[in-house]
Amino acid sequence: MLKQKIKLDYYSNIILQLIQIGASIVVARVAGATILGTVAFGTAFVSTFVFIADLGIGTAHMKLVSSEKGNLDRYIGTYALIKFIFIGFFILVILGFYLIRKFGFEYEFESNTHEQVIFISLIAITVQELFSIPRVTFSGKLEVAKRVIPDFTMKILYNLIRVVVVLLGFGAVAIAFGKIAAALMVIPLYIYFFKSYTIGKPDKKLIQKYLSISVPVILIGVSTKFVDQFDKVLLQFFTNSENVGYYTAGFRFGAMVKMIGVAMGSVLMPDFSKSFAEKDPNTISRKIYRFERFSYIFILPVILVVAIFSDVIVRVLLGAEFEPSIPIMTVITIATFVFVMSTPTGSVITGAGKFKLSAILNSLKLAVFLIFAIMLVHPDLNNMKGLGMAFAFLAANVSFFILNRKYSKSLCGSINNYIAIPYLVIGGLFFTGGFYIYQQYCNSPVLKIIFSIGFLSVYFAVYYLFQLIKKDDLQELKNVISLGKMSDYVRDELGNKGKN
User: Fold this and answer.
1) Do 385 and 232 form a contact (C-beta atoms < 8 A)?
2) Is residue 500 part of a domain?
3) Beta-carbon contacts of residue 459 (< 8 Å; ≥ 6 apart)
4) Which of 199, 259, 319, 321 is 20 to 30 A removed from 6 (C-alpha atoms)?
5) Which domain holds residue 390?
């Protein structure tokens, strides 16, 4: 059943990514890099501080409802009360930061449109944060379908709205308003799925329990949001909206595989928490091994082809205007695969309740990101613009992968640290050689298509030659692709009227 939950989360995110890419192509081609960058900056400006609306209590709520028995109504009521207080604090911080920058430091935004998009994004994100009351409860109870469907619907609506808005000739402000409209439209879905739950009376003792878990998790939220969102804010401050647009486009196409990590983290953390509570670390080790083996065998080769093939993807889908996005996409594609591979071991640490350790590791990741970002992007240093930010993202993810690997093994000793070696050696050699051949000799569309097919064919032939792929791996691929059991799971969960 766990596999079906992960598949549902992953496939829904893949579909969303394809829709978002399609919408981004329309926005980029019709509106241009500047409008794309303006919307991305406004969203990132607000999202950088969205951790204040959570401050770790979402993780605490997920941990508590997944591993402890008791009156669920009181847990939900306590979480809701704390959440409302934190959202209010979040709004005050955003407004204060804006006023200090504008009037205290006399910082002028690139245009009035940038300021309008910031305020509209604040409203949209505030509404979305209120959804976390049912959404995080669903995550803790491993009701993935109830969590995925409203979010999936909202993002489809938003992408449809922004395409229509752009085609009608409107700009960044109208696109930003689309987020509010989409969020309001899915409120009935959340109400329907959450109707079997009750928001009980808050409990003072539970408030203390939530805060005792959330305090170290605050650093996790700060680090995660800064790495995920502050890149665009920092890039805007160092350059301009056009460069943010190039970076956003490259990130959008290169980060598709990141959805695997997002899906894994949202399901594995509460599942691992339950396994630790039952003192069953061997089950955790088996799940990590199967995921990593599958990823190195089937996902890594495709990632490398996409990274090498990024010039065609960008030129065909976005046009010559977005050529600066090509190297950004190459680096981001590899960086997001590293992020995905760090997710299971990161879930071991949080699932074991070692939130202080996770906070330290996430803080180190943020430090690496900021050091590389400033060093590579600052106009008085290397001035690499969006490409420098992409390399900073890669450096942060590599450091996080190594740290998660090291410390998760101490919690779950049977994790295999050597499974990656042969696959990464082969991958590194193929990427280096393949990139050189592609750049030097593939000068026509036909040759590029032949190269991509030949690259994968030889890649898997080497796997077979060195016995790095087995019959069981092919069966695993078949199971992952199959949708039958997943649809049965969705029907069972949505048909369940009671609480799990």
Assistant:
1) no
2) no
3) 301, 304, 426, 430
4) 199
5) 2-494
